[in-house]
């Protein structure tokens, strides 16, 4: 997909919650400081229970997965709702 048409990008956010690996797909504007935004969001949601591991742009395959509504494995919804079948929660 042509990147110049997009005003946002899909990022993969890997973090640990109580020592367990978790992953989110998140969209951010092209000028966003994703590392700082996610560190702040995790702190607000989970306090000392979460640690940001990595943020990176999604690959084309991951972007397609996100756009089709497929959640990554080890997903933990910040609202407390369980993920789709096969996801941890």
List strands and helices in order, with pairings.
Elements lengths: L7 E10 L2 E10 L4 H13 L3 E8 L2 H8 L22
Antiparallel strand pairs: 1-2, 1-3
Short description:
With 89 residues, the protein is an alpha+beta fold. 24% of the residues lie in helices and 31% in strands.
Q: What do these coordinates show?
A:
The protein has helices at residues 34-46, 60-67, and strands at 8-17, 20-29, 50-57. By secondary structure, the protein is an alpha+beta fold. The longest helix has 13 residues, at 34-46. Mean pLDDT is 81; it is low at 85-89.
Shape, please?
globular
Largest sheet, strands/sense/barrel? 3 strands, antiparallel
Low-confidence stretches: 85-89
> How does the helix and strand content classify structurally?
alpha+beta
The overall pLDDT average reads 81
**Quantity of strands, as a count:** 3
> Nearest-angstrom radius of gyration?
13 Å
């Amino acid at each position: 997909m042509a990147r110049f048409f997009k005003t946002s990008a899909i990022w993969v956010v890997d973090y640990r919650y109580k020592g367990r690996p978790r992953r989110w797909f998140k969209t951010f504007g092209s000028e966003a400081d994703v590392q700082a935004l996610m560190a702040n969001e995790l702190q607000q949601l989970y306090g000392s229970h979460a640690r940001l591991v990595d943020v990176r742009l999604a690959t084309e395959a991951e972007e397609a997965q996100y756009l089709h509504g497929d959640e990554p494995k080890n997903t933990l919804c910040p609202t407390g709702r369980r993920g789709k079948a096969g996801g941890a929660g």
